[in-house]
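pinned: reference chain
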Amino acid sequence: MPEQPLTDENIMKMIREGIRETQELRRSMKERDAECAREKKERDEKYAREKQERDAEYAREKKERDAELARIEKETHRKIGNLTGRIGMMVEHMVGGKILEKFQAFGYAVDDYARNHRYRNSKLGISGEIDLILQDGDVAIFIEVKTTLETADGRKHLEKIEKYRIYADAAKILWPPTTRFIGAVADAIVEDEAMKFAHENGMYVIVQSGEAVDIVKTPEGFKAREW
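pinned: its structure tokens
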């Protein structure tokens, strides 16, 4: 297209076209801005709805988890209570089942006992509880009572007696210095490996059936460990 001469009319035409294009551009930009604002509003509203739904779902799941946790804690406390009660009954049955006489037959002159003996020495950082102690001054037999005896229980009992030896030596007045400490574990159900571990480490094994108790026959060469 040939270039138009720069007459007043052509110049005004060019100005009007420029103004029209500018207005069109501004209108287009305004429409785009409005569309962007609309889309942003929709995204924000969608995000708010989704967040509200997520928060509601989280609150529902948390409520269910809290309820389940409360149920588990309640059941655990109940089981612990039953377990504690059962262990207490086993200790009573051992005492009633003439456990003193059983050990007397093994040559120990024990004639007294103590249940749930608790001890603590803050300076040494030592504390604990012994389920049942048979004693006569010269010897003390520490008995750990479990509902199901496992090897780990026997190992912990060894550590407990060693710790108590340190405690007793520091206390001095509780036991004569010549008192020998001997270990034993008791249960109605004893795993073979747990029984083997106990005997190999010089501990007696006591089994319970109803209200009767008995000391498991020790293997040949068995020698009770003394602390």
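why pinned: The two ends are 117 Å apart (CA to CA). The beta strands are 112-121, 126-135, 139-145, 148-149, 180-187, 189-190, 204-209, 212-215.
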